[in-house]
Amino acid sequence: MLRPVCFYGGIRGIPADGSVEHRPSFYTQSMAKAPDCGWTLEEMARARGARCIAGVDEAGRGPLFGPVVAATVILPNGCRLEGLTDSKKLSEKKRVELDAAVRAHAVCWAIAEVDAETIDRINIRRASLLAMRRAVEQLAPSPDFLLIDGRDTIEWECEQRAVIRGDATSFSIAAASVLAKVYRDRLLVELDGVYPGYGLARHKGYGSREHIAALERLGPTPLHRKSYRPVVQISLRFE
Questions:
Q1: Could you give the CA distance from residue 236 to residue 239 in angstroms, rounded to a whole number?
Q2: Model confidence over 159-197: pLDDT tens digits?
Q3: What is the mean pLDDT of residues 61-80?
Q4: At 107, which CATH number?
Q5: What are the residues facing 112 on neighbouring strands?
Q6: Does residue 214 lie within any of the structural domains?
């Protein structure tokens, strides 16, 4: 089975109340209207003096099962990977090809995950930011600028920019989105063998009809997110 790059569970460096401090978001709404994946955001960061720019993205906020996974990638300046864009727009075959290419050509990359128990305890937004921070912690060299998909930045001591639909705008974020998606999909295929009958290899933990029907028949597993409404409602029947 794939081993998580970061440890499961515990929230290293997070206050006891589960809160995650992060800098105010900065994003450009116009970029969300017609994103075009390229180097524009990286070039803007370099114009501000950045030399080590990391893209950061997550996969698995919406599923009812399993961890949320974050990845971060530092690409060489001007690196060209044909077809690189938001992983959700790519076929599975293309994602796998790009996953190998990113790992081969990146200056460095890292993947981290936060488990379902922690998601239930601190909520999915905070868990996603925690997974991102855990991934960034592993990078060597350490980045001096972060480009992060979404509206939030993370608790990290360097300049950051949060970008709505950043995975379709920045090559660095797109690369991170591919690594996170492929890693999580592979993990769910393996977990399908641990928890048979739920169809995890097909729906990857999302709330499909097949998944809901299996939950109603078999009940939740230890890796289901007990704070998510469909799981909460079904769990009550098995108590």
A1: 5
A2: 999 999 999 999 999 999 999 999 999 999 999 999 999
A3: 96
A4: 3.30.420.10
A5: 70
A6: no
